[in-house]
Design brief:
There is one protein chain. The chain is α+β, with helices and mostly antiparallel strands. It is built from six helices and 22 strands. The chain has helices at about 1-10, 135-140, 195-205, 245-250, 265-270, 300-310; strands at about 15-20, 25-30, 35-45, 50-55, 60-65, 75-80, 85-90, 95, 110, 115-120, 130-135, 145-155, 155-160, 170-175, 190, 205-210, 215, 225-230, 230-235, 255-260, 285, 290. Strands 3, 4, 6, 7 and 8 form a five-stranded antiparallel beta sheet that branches. A hairpin with a 5-residue loop joins strand 6 (about 75-80) and strand 7 (about 85-90). The longest helix is centred in the C-terminal third of the chain and has 11 residues, at about 300-310. The protein starts with a helix and ends with a helix. The relative contact order is 0.10.
Length: about 325
């Protein structure tokens, strides 16, 4: 029985160093089919014996703190089956001595939408270089998947666009012109939400701005982002106007994108939302579920908006 369980839990195909600083290192690995948990071991370079850090890790990432910056270290990972048997260990991931390494703090994710991530950082002197990587690529091999987001950023905030929905991304930064600096530790990963299929079905494949330019209803709803009680919302105008001239006249007053006047989806959406009078503000969750039939006149307090967000997640 044990041998069969072990055979089902092959070692992680890849074990790599996600990031490191003078006092810690983070190891990341690819999932193993059939694994109930993972065992992680480490040793200082040159030592024979391995030290077990854990045998019950559920995530495919582990950070070890309290390292000696003057020493190099090695890590390895094995899958653990449901009976607690530890399988074969992966290849070794190595961390070099960090005694003379200069790094600035890891960047912090400050905003995420359907296709972009905004990060900010401190320390060092600009201009800065910024890199990004998809977490799934880092799990496969942390040495190659980092890509350049910007070669020279004068400030301490940057936005990376055109990211793929459903993926998690990490970022790292360093002074672009300073010698002796290595890349910072990686940021926490940011998840780009997947496109909500109902959005295109409900509002059509394209939205339009007041100048007539189109934007695809893609990874995000593609509407105007506004802040309600400090929370980001996308707003799209669904017109009840009876002719194109009235549509254009009213639309000129709004900063939002709109469903084009001549789109069949506009009439269909008005019917779906049972619009019989204006003004009307319908609050939708990310799955298309109607949270509030008409929020006109409601106070956009933190409590109100957070209540909508809890409701969207299925909590009362």
């Amino acid at each position: 029985m044990a041998s069969q369980a072990l055979a089902a839990c092959a070692p992680p195909a890849a074990c790599s160093i996600y990031d490191a600083d003078a006092a810690s290192a983070c190891v990341m690995w690819s999932p193993s089919a059939g694994a109930a948990s993972y065992a992680v071991e480490m040793r200082a370079a040159g030592d024979e014996a391995w030290t077990t850090l854990s045998k019950t890790l559920k995530a495919c990432k582990c950070r070890k703190k309290g390292l000696d910056a003057s020493r190099a270290y090695e890590f390895r990972v094995a899958a653990v089956d449901a009976a607690g048997a530890v399988g074969e260990f992966s290849g070794i991931a190595k961390v070099a001595s960090r005694a003379d390494v200069a790094q600035q703090p890891a960047p912090v994710v400050s905003a995420v939408d359907g296709e972009s991530v905004t990060v900010q950082w401190s320390g060092g002197e600009g201009p800065y270089a910024l890199q990004y990587a998809a977490e799934e690529d880092l799990r496969a091999d942390a040495t190659t998947p980092w890509r350049l987001a910007a070669a020279s950023v004068n400030g301490t905030v940057a936005k990376k666009k055109n990211l793929d929905g459903g993926k998690r991304y990490a970022f790292r930064v360093k002074p672009a012109d300073a010698s002796g600096y290595e890349w910072s530790r990686a940021s926490e990963t940011a998840l780009i939400p997947r496109a909500a299929p109902f959005m295109a079905r409900c509002f059509g494949t394209d939205l339009v701005n007041k100048s007539g330019g189109k934007r695809t209803t893609g990874p995000s709803l593609a509407g105007k982002i506004v802040a309600a009680a400090g929370r980001p919302f996308e707003v799209v105008w669904l017109s009840c106007e009876r002719d194109p001239e009235a549509f254009s006249s009213t639309f000129a007053q709004f900063p939002f994108l709109a469903v084009p006047f001549d789109n069949d989806e506009r009439e269909r959406a008005l019917g779906n939302f049972k619009v019989s009078g204006i003004p009307r503000l319908v609050i939708l969750g990310p799955d298309g579920r109607e949270l509030v039939n008409n929020a006109v006149g409601m106070s956009l307090s933190i409590a109100t908006v957070d209540g909508w967000m809890r409701q969207a997640k299925g909590h009362k």
